[in-house]
Amino acid sequence: MKFDHILIRFGEISTKGRNRRKFIDRLKNNVRDVLTDFPNLEYQGTRDRLYIHLHNEDHEVIVERLKNIFGIQSFSLAIKCKSDISEIKEMALKAVNSVFQPYDTFKVTTKRADKQFPLDTNELNYQIGSHVLINTEDLTVDVKNPKINLRVEVRKEATYLTCYDFKGAGGLPVGSGGKAMLLLSGGIDSPVAGFLTLKRGVELEVIHFFSPPYTSERAKQKVIDLARELTAFGGKIKLHIVPFTAIQEKIQEQVPENYTMTSTRRMMLKIADKLREKQQALALITGESLGQVASQTLESMVAINDVTSTPIIRPLITMDKLEIIEISKSIGTHDISIRPYEDCCTIFTPANPKTKPKLEKVSRFESFVDFDELVSQSLNKVETIVITKEQKEKFDNLL
Predict the structure, then answer these.
(1) Where does the record place the THUMP domain (predicted)?
(2) Which of 1, 43, 88, 342 is packed most tightly, with the most Cβ within 10 A?
């Protein structure tokens, strides 16, 4: 049997009260954007569901894409029929037969959204289940742990029957929570931070600091590929590539070695905050995990954060490395992150970086250089690229 609809269920959106419609509209737009190459699809949104009429489009490809869209709790392949008990029973039998294997178990779960329908939920479960059971051999009922859970949603305009259920990505629709700027290195942590922020409905733009000739074009391509992986969860992403060589060289020249890491992070935040303001974003995002490296102690964060009053989101702050690695593998960024090309965070790494830097000291070290002028020069040379999932992969061409 051919399923003609996909039924999408909301999760956290359902708690949004008066603002629910805005979240649903945002989710619908995000789904449209992800499925833009399926022009025959038809969308219908209600207070607690989103329906996609497939019109003979390939549901297998659509299902795989829907799994990555934040704001979806679960979704199912569905059959639509009239809200008539005879037709519902016949469609239920066809639906079960399409997935049934000998000696499977099943149950019927009915949701009666149309309270004017002449049969209540228990009567519907009984009549539909009896019809399926009588007309199917080697099928038994198991209401606790069935192999097949036939869900029936009776609504005024139509009834929807589902057997195939898929888990959604959860979270909130991307774009419903404003926009923020992700500082994306070539490592494992920052792409995971971006993923987790997307899950909370925040639209991302990405900033990468590039220091040629100390960092290579392959390192740059690595970051482009990481950003592309994130587009599977949030659509197209703007990537801002900031030339950072002159600033890093000046830091190495003027700042004592054990403070160079602190000063480098401060300059990154200064530039990121200027870009945030220009792009009208509301926050900065980093992949910091408390105590993981010298620049991620509380004392370091105090000294580094001093250059901005902008909120800094740190989704990984309490995670350990193994937790972060597991997430990176699940979202497809891990193998890209471990490519052996250094970024500007790993070059010039001091042998003994300060783990408890003093704000007054790093401020004094920086006071002997006009870093504001160097920051302005970097901002004037920023390269911006719009990354989409459909772009041709470039990494292999560099080998």
Answers:
(1) 60-165
(2) 88
Residue 208 labelled as part of a binding site: yes
Distance, in Å, from the CA atom of 341 to the CA atom of 217, rounded to the nearest integer, reads: 9
- Please tell me whether 161 is known to bind a ligand: no
**314 among the known binding-site residues?**
no
Question: Is residue 355 within 8 Å of 294, Cβ to Cβ?
Answer: yes
Residue 136 DSSP code:
-
Q: Is 184 annotated as a binding residue?
A: yes
pLDDT given at position 334: 96
| 287 is annotated as contributing to ligand binding | yes
Which residue type does 355 have?
A: T
The CATH class, in words, for 179-387 is alpha beta
**Residue 240 is inside which H or E element, if any?**
strand 237-243
CB–CB of 175/236 below 8 Å? no
Give me the CATH topology for the region 3-167. Answer: VC0802-like (3.30.2130)
Q: Which residues pair with 152 in a beta bridge?
A: 110, 161
DSSP three-state, residue 95: helix
